[in-house]
Structures are given as structure tokens and as C-alpha cells.
Amino acid sequence: MKRAFLGLLGAAIFMFFFSFMLVPLYNVFCEVTGLNGKIYGPSDFFKSQKEQFNRDVNVRFLSQVNESAPVTFYPSSESMTVETDKVSRTTYVAKNNTNKNLILTIIPSVSPGLAAEQVKKIQCFCFEEQALGPYEEQEWPIRFYVDSELSKNVNNIYLSYTLFENNRTETIAMQHGN
Amino acid sequence: MSAVVEHHDHDHGPKKGLTRWLFTTNHKDIGTLYLWFSFLMFLTGGAMAMGIRAELFEPGLQLLDPIKYNQLVTMHGLIMIFGGVMPAFVGLANWLIPMQIGAPDMALPRMNNLSFWLLPSAFTILLSTAFMEGGMPGFGWTFYAPLSTNYPNIAYFVFAIHIMGISSIMGSINVIVTIMNMRAPGITLMKMPLFVWSWLITAYLLIAVMPVLAGAVTMLLMDAYFGTSFFDAAGGGDPVLFQHIFWFFGHPEVYIMILPAFGITSHIISTFSRKPLFGHASMVYAMVSIAVLSFVVWAHHMFTVGMPLVAELFFMWATMLIAIPTGVKVFNWVATIFKGSITYETPMLFAIAFVVLFTIGGFSGLMLAITPADFQYHDTYFVVAHFHYVLVPGAVFSIMAAVYYWLPKWTGNMYDETMGKLHFWLSFIGVNVTFFPQHFVGLAGMPRRYADYALQFAEWNAISSIGAFLFGASQLLFLYIVVKSVFAGKKATAQVWDGARGLEWTVASPAPYHTFEIPPKITKSTKV
Q1: CATH number of the domain at B57-255, please?
Q2: Residue B53 pLDDT > 60
Q3: CA distance B118 to B111
Q4: Is A60 helix (H, G, I), strand (E, B) or coil?
Q5: What span, in angstroms and rounded, lies between the C-alpha atoms of B383 and B77?
Q6: Does the bond joining B146 to the residue before it have cis omega, within 30 degrees of 0?
Q7: Complex confidence, ipTM
Q8: Is B212 in Cβ contact with A12 (below 8 Å)?
């Protein structure tokens, strides 16, 4: 009876920690499968150079500002046609509408989600936090290419960026003299 | 008492006064406490539902502002699920499991006392937010982050859920240890009554998922107060992750609220058809398969979050698969009724209504499982109609059926049959008038969780509100019938119902304070 009790109690405690294990599991799962449009970090361009039949893909750029952020944020061109395996460059424009220093985090997403793995970013403002001084306007570059392994069914890719004001690191950044 | 006291030289009756209830370790006392507590919560959550339906009686804002409306919707859901349905089933488990397996009490009686007394404190914490600045939680019972992390008073909500979770887990451990160790000799697992079986499976589900709920609210608390970003995209978290974790708990949770109902219905239908249950073993296997499948269907609650096609197909098919074991159960009940010599006492009326109306709820569930169709139905009143059909005439009707069925055993008095039937018909009509029109407005596109709606939905909403008032008022009749049977009524025999089988009908009515101190002899002819 005591063994049954302890076993069941152990199972309950295990399930509590299992719920926390779901967090890294979910991220690993999304990263491996490319689900949920997640892309992590810069990609190594030269490693994946292959002889492939190149084709044109339409890439559209979207921007969103999370409700509380006092920033104007938009892509400088709304769409472009790119050849697979060829590096392209575009920019996003961000303007601080306040008289304060802002630290911003930009979260990327790719749609359709299953194409996320084939969108390779070499340079992106989403890789790290961005800082804007009072009323400052900046142009942020992205350099990327679309891998030719992209599924034949995909002809349009949407790159979406959501901008968040990062209150948490503001004080830390200020201490470093922004 | 004297019926079972054989060689005792002192009386083991209950203590007198308030301390009897505070310190009791008796499974019958604790069962009674659970049942009264859940009835109190049922009336509290019901009063909130009346407020919701009063606001929705006509379009526009009359009684509540949208924030208060959202708070009532949220609290209605939380109270009915965690305070109404779940404690009622635990109360029934406490009363019935020891008596049905021939055990003297639950295996861990002091923990049993603690599991109950945690609940009033949890709900005091949760309801106390009503008197605070910022008010009650208003983010829906599903508390999707990051909406919930930005709400005031969220810590009270989180701690209340923690305490309820601890109570449920302790109750479940108690149920499993009791069933595994304290069955009278001769009651093998496959001979066990179905209510006991349904609770054994439910208890395992609870142990598997209540800790996940505790983890989810802990992450919420950390996001809100300790600067983590589990669900906050700005810090690299993911709001969709919250939905996955929540529904990994949430889907088994809905089966936690229906499996004991399956057990109850099996007993009652067999009794009033005066036939043994058709397909006892297949009923057990069906419940086990439903429990196992409940872990692989959670994402059907989130078809519209943007999952890849493969995932949508998997969750659609897995969900539809559940219809098979559920269908086995429904057909077994029908086959039990078939050619039985049926009488329609109140418990039987509730049980038949359960089978019919639960099946309607099951069918609308199948419609919702079709992914492309779900994009249309998602977050409309069709969903509200669906889950109220499986929870109100499903879970709640089964609890009422159980109360009428075992009440004579608990109180020693028969309830008033005419009043019971009146209560049934008022509830039956009320529930259908309330929730059936919600299918129509849902299919026409009326969204959930708004205090106001477009004019085209006005008629059906008015009808729905009238049904809700009827259903709500008729529950006061239920209270009256139960209280009356506690104090007066025709004396019940030990057998109570002539077709009833099971060890609980071999002890006197009312059941003595201590039963089966000596395990009963189970022979081939004993009807377990």
C-alpha cells in the first residue's frame, strides 16, 4: 500500500516536471521539423551550395508592431521575386516616436511554416536586440536566400516580423551607456 | 448500526457537532461533504450563468459591462468544472467505492480529509478576487497566455488552481490505492463494478494531467511576476506553446468529467432494465481506450492556430477514432435496455436522457473534429452548445441520476418520486431549450465570449435565456427534494431497487457509519 502511494506520488511529481520539459521539447520539435514557421540564427551559406535547378520565388514582407510599442515599422519594399540559392538583400524601416531610448526585439515568422527551413537568413535584425534613440529612424537590413530544396508547391513565401518593445532589458542596456 | 455490529463492545458512531465534519476520516462523511460542497458551487456557478444569460437576453449592454461579463464567464467555467462536476464525482467515489468493493473505508483516510478541506480554501482564494481592485479573472477558463499574464490578481487564480490540483491528486492517489489493495477477496479486477472501474481510470488520468496544469499555471506565474518568457514572444517565448500545454491537460480533463458518468449510467440502466449490463468487459476496454486516446487528440482544440496539414490530419483522425469506443458504450447501454422489463423512476429518466443527449453532444463533437469544418465553427456558439450538451445533460445529469439512485441508501428515506419526476422534466426541457438554439446561432456565426451580439441572433438568444432561467430555477426544486429526503420520507429497504445489483445494496439503509469491517464473502452467486 505504501509502495503504491509513493509510486503514484512520484508519478504526479514527474508529470509536474514533465510539463516544464514540454517547453524545450516543443522548441526542438519545431526546429527539427520547421513547424510553426520558426527559424533560428544565421545560416551557413557556403555549406549548402549545390548544383540545383534554380527558379523564381515570390517573397512578401510583412510587419507588425505589438500594441504597446511606440514605433513605426514597415518593410521598404513589400515584395520581391528572388531566384533560389541567390542571396538577396532588403531593408525594414523603424522609427522611434518617443523622446526615450528604446530597446526592441523583433520576432520573425515564415509562412507557410513548412518552408521555414528553406529560408536561410545570413543577416537579420531579428538575430539580436535593436536600439533606437529618441525620434531616431533606422534602416535595418536582411540578407537571405531561398534554398532550391524548397517544395515545388511553394511559390509564395511570407516573411513576417513582429516588433516588441523590450522593457526588461532597457535598464541593463542603459547601464552600458546604450 | 446494529445490523453490522457483531462483536464490538463499544459504539463507533459519528462524533457530535462541528468537529465531526472538520476532523472526520470516515469515507461516508467525506463523501457527504464533497457532495454538499459541489452543490453549493453548482448554485454559485449557476447564479453566474443566470447573470450571463440575463445579459444575453437581448442585444446591447443592459446589466453588465464587457469586463464584468468576461469575469462571470470565466468564473462560471472554473467553478462548474473544478468546484461543481469534479468534487461531485469525488464525493460519489468516496461514498460508493468502499461499499462497492467491500472495503471498510478509503485506504488513506486522513489524506482524504485533507483533500476535501483544501477545496473550500481554494475557492475562497479564487472568489475573494471579486472583492479586490481589478476584480475576478476575466480571461476565460482556458486562461490563454499572454492575455492572462497581463491580468490583475492572477496570483490568486494560480494559487487556487495549485490547491485544487493538490486536492485532486491526493484524492486520485487515494482512489487507486483503495481499489488496488482493499477489494474484498473474490472481487477480481474484471468483476469490479463499472463505477469503480470508471474511477480507477479517471484517477490515473488525474494523476497524469493535474500536475501538467500545475506546471502551466506555474509558468504563467513566472511570466507574470518573475520576468521569464515562457509564453511572451518579446522574450523569445511562444503563445502557441501555452495552448499546447494547456490542452495536453485540457483534453484528458474533459474525459475526467465524463468517465465516472459512464460508470453511473451503466449501473442505473442495468438496475431499471432488470438485466445485467450488456458487455461488461467491452465497457471496461472502451473506457481504457478512451482514456489512452485522450492524450493524443489535444490539438483539435487549436486547429486554427496555424498547424501544418499533417498535424491537422493526425489530430482529426485521432479525434474521430474516439467515436468508436464511445459508440461501443452507447450501443451497450441500448442493448441493456433492449427487452428489459423497464420502469421509469427518476434515476432511470436521468440516465436515459444522459444517453440520448450525451450522444447529441458527441455528434456535434464529431462535426467539430472535421478540421475544415472546424475553421467555420471555431469559437462560435456551436462549440458552446457542444460542450454544454456533454457537460450539462451529460456529466451533471449523471450526477443527478446518481444522487436519486443512491439517496435512499445514504439517507434511509425514499425521495419524493413525483417531485423527482417533475425536477427531471423541468431540467430536461430547460436544458434543451437553453442549449439547442445555440447550435443554430453558432452555425450562423455568433462568436463566443462577447457580452453583445448582432441583431439577427436576438430571437434564439432570448429563447436560450428563458430555457436557462427554467433550468436554473428547477435546481432549487432539486435542493428541496434532497433536503426533504434527508429528514423525512418513506423508509427505504436495504435493497431499495428490486433490480439493483452490487454490495452496497447488501447493507442496511441508511448505510451504517461503518460498513464491511469484516470483508463480505464473495461467492459465484454474489451479484457484484
Answers
A1: 1.20.210.10
A2: yes
A3: 11
A4: strand
A5: 14
A6: yes
A7: 0.75
A8: no
Partner A contacted by B107 (CB < 8 A): yes
All structural domains of chain B with their residue ranges: 57-255, 258-492
Minimum Cα–Cα distance from A8: chain B residue: B173
CATH annotation of B258-492:
1.20.210.10
All three cell numbers of A39 = 527559424
How much is the pTM? 0.86
Chain A residues in contact with B210 by the CB 8 A cut-off are: 12, 15
The distance of B307 to chain A (nearest Cα, Å) reads 7
Look at residue A117 in the predicted model and tell me its pLDDT.
81
Over residues B471-512, the pLDDT tens digits come to 999 999 999 999 999 999 999 999 999 989 999 999 999 999
CB contact under 8 A, A26 and B230: no
Cell numbers representing residue B25 in the block: 476520516
Task: Work out the minimum CA distance from A165 to partner chain B, whole angstroms.
Answer: 7
List chain A domain ranges. Answer: 1-33, 37-175
pLDDT tens per residue across span B239-262: 999 999 999 999 999 999 999 999
Q: Is the peptide bond before B510 cis (omega within 30 degrees of 0)?
A: yes
Chain A residues whose C-beta sits inside 8 Å of any chain B C-beta? 1, 4-5, 8-9, 11-20, 22-23, 26-27, 33, 35-37, 66, 105, 107, 111, 113-114, 162, 164-166, 168
Instruction: Please give the sequence-ordered ranges of beta strands (E in DSSP) within A76-149, or none if there are none.
Output: 79-83, 88-96, 102-111, 119-123, 130-132, 137-146
- Please name the CATH architecture into which domain A37-175 falls: Sandwich (2.60)
Q: Which residue among B176, B213, B219 sits closest to A8, beta carbon to beta carbon?
A: B176
pLDDT band at residue B162 using 50, 70 and 90 as cut-offs: very high
